[in-house]
Recover the amino acids of this structure.
C-alpha cells in the first residue's frame, strides 16, 4: 500500500487531521533541507510538501517567491530536490513526501525521466500548480503507472462540474485552496471553507486538505475541525527567512509542534 | 497565370442611394455623382412611392443614372403593371423570391441576401446564377451607425464571381472603412443619408459621397479560408493550451464564452469597428517608402503605418477590443503588464475612456528605461506598480498581473498585451490584431495592383507579427519573416530570441518556445528594445515555426539601431526600436531582390518613446 494511503488511513482511524508543512527545497541553503524535513516529522508532520524552486512562481505570494529566489541562488535544481528526497529516505521510509512546483522544470527534464527518478527516490505525490487536469493527461498517467499520486487543486472559483471532474482525476489527497489569491494571502474564512469541503466530499473518498492562508495555531485548529489535512506554507517559510540559520532546526520544529498540539487539543 | 487574374482591380466603388421619395433628392444625388437610385415599391415601407411619384422622380433625373425598383414578395402582375408605367433599368428583390420569380420579367435583377451567421453565400450565388449582383444586407435592428460586416465578411468565398453590394447600417462616417476593408463592387445607403424616413439630406449625401470616394476601391478578394486553429481548448498542435492555477480556470472559461458570444454579436462588432475608426484612426496608411527602396536598390518596400494609430503603436487595436469585452462582462477594473510601456499606455488610454480603474504592472528595470511612458500612464489616471521580483522585467510583470488577477477575479479583467498567456488570449489578441493584415491585403492591391511577395514583422510576444501574417497564411507563395531580438548577438547568449535558440516549455499559461536553462528555469533576456525583451513567444508562432510557414530570424541591437537611423533620415519616419528590428532584416534582403518584388513591413510603432535610449547610446544627454 502507498505511503500516502497508509498515512491517511491511520489518521482517519485515530480521527485526527493530518498536518502537512511546506518548505522550499534549498532554502536557505541546500544542506539544511533534509535535516529540516526530519525535524518536521519529529515535531508531528504527517506528510511533507517540498517546494521545487522555479524562476516564475506565478501562484505564490512574496514570501514563497523570495524562498524560491534564495533556493535558486544556491543553484537548487529539480535534480537536487530529487537527491534531497533520496537522502531523506535513507532514514525515513514512512513519511510521504509530495513535490510541489511548476511544470516547466519537469517539461525540460522530460516526463519519463522525471517520473522514473521520482519513483526511485521515493516521492509519493506531485502537485504541479500550473497544470490543471485538462492538460495533465500524459503526466498523470505516467505518475500513476509509477505509483505516484497526481495531486490537484480545487479553488473557491471551481464550478461543481469541475469539482466532479477533478475528483475523478485526483489521487492521494485533494488540495482545497482556501481563498482567491496567492500563497500567504490574508485571512481565510472558516465557514465558507467548511461548506466547500462538504461539497467536495460528496464527490470523493479521498482526504481533503486545506491550504493557503493558515498561519497560526488558531487557524490550523479551526481548519483541522472541518477537513482531513491542514497545509501550512508561508508561515513556516517566513520563519526560514527571518530566523538565523543556526536556529532554524529548533525554531521550525517548535512552530510545527505548536500547530500539532493546537490541532490535537480539540 | 497569376491566381489574381480573375479579379482585375476596379477603379472605384459605385454608390446607390435607395428609398428616394422626392424628385429634388434624386437631382441632388445625381449632381453628387451617385450611380444609381432606388425606388421602393413595397407598400409597408415608409419609403414606398406611387407610380406617379416614381414617374416624376425618373423624369427629373439626368441620363446615366441607373434606376432600380425594389420589390418584396410582390405578385408578378403587380410588377408587370409597374414596369408598364415606370421605366426601371433593373429590379431588386428583397423577399423570398425564387430564381424563377426573379427572372420572369426579362429585366436584369439583383437579389438581396440578409447576412446572418452561417449563411452559405456561395450556394446562394449559384442558385441565383443569372443575378447581376448580390446585395448583402447586414443591417441589424437597433444598431446605429455601424455594421458588423467585417467579421461576417469571412463568410464570403474568395472565388465568388458575382459583384457584391454592401448594404445595411452604412453612414458617412463608416463608409470609407467599409470600402477599405471589404472592397465591394458597390455600397447601398438609405437611412444613413436621411433627416427623416424617406427625406434625404443634401449634407449627409455629400458627406457620404466624400467618404466613399476617399478610398479607391480594389479587387474583390476576401480573407482566405482561415486555418482552424487553435482547437477548442486553445491548442496549436502541441503548443498553447491552458496552464494556469486552478483559481483561474473558471474565469478563463467565462472569458472564452463571452468572447465567442461577442465575436458573433453585431452590436459589439459595430462598436469595435466604430472605435477602431474614430478613436484609433483606422485604417492606418500603407506607405510606399520610395526613397528607402531606391537607396537599398532592390525590392519595393511598403510600410504598414501602425505608428500612426492613437498612442503610437499597434497595441491599441487589442486594448480597445478587450476593454469593450470587459465592459460587456461587467468588469470595473482592468489590469495589464507592460514592458516598453506601449501596451500599458494603450490600456491606460482605454481605461480612461471607459471610466475603469486601471493598474499596470511594470518591472522596475523597465520603469527606469521607459520613464516617459510611465508618466503617460500616470497622466491617464492609471496606477503603475513596480515589480521587484525575478529579473524585474516584462516576464515578472506578467507574473505579478496574474497574481493580481487570481486575487481580484470577481471585478477584474486582465488585458494581456500580446498573443501569449492562456487560452483564449492568443486567439483573441490575434483576432483583434488581424485588422492589420486585412487592411494590408486591400491596400497593397490598390497601391501595387497585387499582393506582396514578402511580409516582415518583429516578434516580441508576437502580436503585431500575427496581426499582419494571419490573413496571408493561406497564400503560400508569400514569404513571411518574423524577426526576433538578437541583442548582443545570438552567440553571446545576451538576446531575446526564443524561436531561434530556445526549446519548448511552459510559461505564463501556455506551451511554447522558451529561453530556459538546462534545469527549466526561465532565463533573463536582453534587447535594446524593451518591447522585445521577453523569454517566451505566442504559441501560434511556435506552431508556425515547426510547420515552416513562417521563417524566424534575428537581428542585433546594432543592426536595429542602424535601421532606426536610416528610416528616420531617408523617409522622415522615426520607428520604434521594436519595429526597427523588422526594418533591419529588410535591409539585409531587399538589396538582393529584383525591383519588381514587393515587401510589406509592419511598422508596429513610432520611436518617440525610444529617443532617450538612442541618445544615451550616442552619449548625448537630453
Ligand atoms: C512598437 C512595438 N512593436 C512591437 C512590440 C512587441 O510586441 P508584439 O510582438 O506582441 O507585437 C511592442 C511591445 O511593446 C511594441 O511596443
Amino acid at each position: 500500500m502507498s505511503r500516502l494511503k497508509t498515512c491517511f488511513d491511520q489518521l482517519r482511524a485515530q480521527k485526527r487531521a493530518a498536518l502537512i508543512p511546506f518548505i522550499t527545497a534549498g532554502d536557505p541553503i541546500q544542506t539544511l533541507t533534509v535535516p529540516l524535513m526530519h525535524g518536521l516529522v519529529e515535531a508531528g508532520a504527517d506528510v511533507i510538501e517540498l517546494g521545487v524552486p522555479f524562476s516564475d512562481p506565478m501562484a505564490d505570494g512574496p514570501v514563497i517567491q523570495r524562498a524560491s529566489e534564495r533556493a535558486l541562488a544556491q543553484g537548487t535544481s529539480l535534480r537536487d530536490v530529487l537527491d534531497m528526497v533520496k537522502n531523506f529516505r535513507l532514514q525515513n521510509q514512512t513519511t510521504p513526501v509530495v513535490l510541489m512546483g511548476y511544470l516547466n522544470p519537469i517539461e525540460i527534464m522530460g516526463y519519463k525521466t522525471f517520473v522514473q527518478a521520482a519513483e526511485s527516490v521515493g516521492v509519493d505525490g506531485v502537485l504541479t500548480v500550473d497544470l490543471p487536469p485538462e492538460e495533465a493527461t500524459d503526466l498523470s498517467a505516467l505518475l500513476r503507472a509509477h505509483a505516484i499520486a497526481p495531486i490537484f487543486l480545487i479553488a473557491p472559483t471551481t464550478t461543481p462540474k469541475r469539482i466532479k471532474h477533478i475528483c475523478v482525476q485526483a489521487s492521494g489527497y485533494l488540495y482545497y485552496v482556501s481563498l482567491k489569491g496567492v500563497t500567504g494571502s490574508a485571512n481565510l474564512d472558516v465557514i465558507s471553507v467548511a461548506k466547500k469541503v462538504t461539497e467536495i466530499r460528496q464527490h470523493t473518498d479521498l482526504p481533503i486538505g486545506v491550504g493557503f492562508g493558515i498561519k497560526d495555531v488558531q487557524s490550523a485548529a479551526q481548519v483541522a475541525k472541518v477537513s482531513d489535512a491542514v497545509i501550512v506554507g508561508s508561515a513556516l517559510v517566513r520563519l526560514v527567512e527571518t530566523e538565523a540559520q543556526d536556529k532554524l532546526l529548533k525554531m521550525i520544529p517548535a512552530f510545527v509542534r505548536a500547530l500539532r498540539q493546537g490541532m490535537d487539543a480539540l | 497565370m497569376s491566381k489574381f487574374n480573375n479579379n482585375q482591380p476596379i477603379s472605384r466603388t459605385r454608390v446607390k442611394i435607395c428609398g428616394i421619395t422626392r424628385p429634388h433628392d434624386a437631382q441632388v444625388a445625381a449632381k453628387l455623382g451617385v450611380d444609381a437610385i432606388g425606388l421602393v415599391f413595397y407598400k409597408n415601407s415608409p419609403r414606398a412611392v406611387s407610380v406617379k411619384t416614381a414617374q416624376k422622380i425618373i423624369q427629373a433625373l439626368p441620363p446615366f443614372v441607373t434606376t432600380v425598383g425594389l420589390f418584396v414578395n410582390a405578385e408578378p402582375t403587380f410588377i408587370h403593371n409597374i414596369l408598364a408605367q415606370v421605366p426601371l433599368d433593373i429590379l431588386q428583390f428583397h423577399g423570398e423570391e425564387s430564381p424563377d420569380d426573379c427572372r420572369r420579367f426579362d429585366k436584369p435583377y439583383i437579389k438581396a441576401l440578409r447576412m446572418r451567421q452561417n449563411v452559405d453565400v456561395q450556394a446562394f450565388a449559384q442558385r441565383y446564377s443569372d443575378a447581376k449582383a448580390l446585395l448583402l444586407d447586414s443591417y441589424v435592428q437597433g444598431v446605429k451607425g455601424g455594421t458588423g460586416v467585417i467579421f461576417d465578411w469571412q463568410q464570403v468565398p474568395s472565388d465568388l464571381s458575382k459583384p457584391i453590394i454592401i448594404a445595411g447600417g452604412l453612414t458617412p462616417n463608416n463608409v470609407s472603412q467599409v470600402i477599405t476593408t471589404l472592397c465591394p463592387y458597390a455600397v447601398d445607403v438609405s437611412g444613413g443619408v436621411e433627416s427623416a424616413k424617406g427625406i434625404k439630406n443634401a449634407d449627409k449625401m455629400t458627406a457620404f459621397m466624400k467618404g466613399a470616394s476617399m478610398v479607391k476601391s480594389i479587387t474583390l478578394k476576401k480573407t482566405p479560408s482561415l486555418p482552424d486553429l487553435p482547437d477548442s481548448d486553445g491548442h496549436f498542435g502541441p503548443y498553447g493550451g491552458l496552464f494556469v492555477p486552478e483559481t483561474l480556470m473558471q474565469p478563463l472559461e467565462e472569458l472564452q464564452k463571452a468572447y465567442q458570444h461577442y465575436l458573433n454579436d453585431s452590436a459589439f462588432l459595430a462598436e469595435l469597428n466604430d472605435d477602431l475608426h474614430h478613436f484609433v484612426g483606422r485604417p492606418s496608411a500603407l506607405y510606399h517608402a520610395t526613397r528607402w527602396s531606391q537607396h537599398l536598390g532592390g525590392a519595393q518596400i511598403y510600410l504598414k503605418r501602425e505608428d500612426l494609430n492613437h498612442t503610437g503603436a499597434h497595441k491599441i487595436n487589442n486594448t480597445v477590443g478587450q476593454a469593450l469585452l470587459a465592459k460587456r462582462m461587467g468588469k470595473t477594473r482592468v489590469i495589464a503588464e507592460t514592458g516598453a510601456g506601449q501596451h500599458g499606455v494603450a490600456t491606460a488610454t482605454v481605461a480612461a475612456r471607459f471610466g475603469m480603474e486601471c493598474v499596470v504592472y511594470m518591472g522596475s528595470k523597465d520603469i527606469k528605461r521607459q520613464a516617459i511612458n510611465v508618466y503617460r500612464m500616470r497622466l491617464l489616471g492609471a496606477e503603475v506598480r513596480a515589480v521587484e521580483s525575478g529579473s524585474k522585467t516584462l516576464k515578472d510583470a506578467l507574473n505579478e498581473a496574474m497574481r493580481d488577477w487570481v486575487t481580484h477575479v470577481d471585478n477584474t479583467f486582465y488585458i494581456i498585451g500580446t498573443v501569449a498567456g492562456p487560452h483564449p488570449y492568443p486567439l483573441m489578441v490575434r483576432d483583434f490584431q488581424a485588422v492589420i493584415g486585412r487592411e494590408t491585403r486591400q491596400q497593397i492591391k490598390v497601391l501595387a495592383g497585387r499582393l506582396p511577395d514578402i511580409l516582415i514583422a518583429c516578434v516580441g510576444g508576437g502580436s503585431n507579427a500575427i496581426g499582419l501574417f494571419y490573413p496571408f497564411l493561406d497564400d503560400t507563395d508569400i514569404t513571411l519573416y518574423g524577426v526576433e531580438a538578437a541583442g548582443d548577438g545570438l552567440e553571446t547568449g545576451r538576446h531575446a530570441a526564443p524561436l531561434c535558440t530556445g526549446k519548448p516549455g511552459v510559461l505564463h499559461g501556455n506551451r511554447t518556445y522558451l529561453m530556459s536553462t538546462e534545469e527549466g528555469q526561465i532565463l533573463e533576456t536582453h534587447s535594446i528594445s524593451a518591447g522585445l525583451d521577453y523569454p517566451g513567444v505566442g504559441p501560434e508562432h511556435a506552431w508556425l515555426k515547426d510547420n515552416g510557414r513562417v521563417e524566424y530570424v534575428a537581428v542585433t541591437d546594432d543592426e536595429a539601431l542602424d535601421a532606426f537611423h536610416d528610416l528616420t533620415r531617408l523617409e522622415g519616419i522615426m520607428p520604434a526600436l521594436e519595429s526597427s528590428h523588422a526594418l533591419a532584416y529588410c535591409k539585409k534582403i531587399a538589396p538582393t531582390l529584383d525591383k519588381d518584388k514587393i515587401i510589406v513591413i509592419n511598422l508596429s510603432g513610432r520611436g518617440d518613446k525610444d529617443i532617450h535610449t538612442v541618445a544615451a547610446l550616442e552619449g548625448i544627454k537630453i
In short: Residues 1-9, 142-151, 216-226 of chain B have pLDDT under 50 and may be disordered. Chain B has 24 helices and 24 strands.
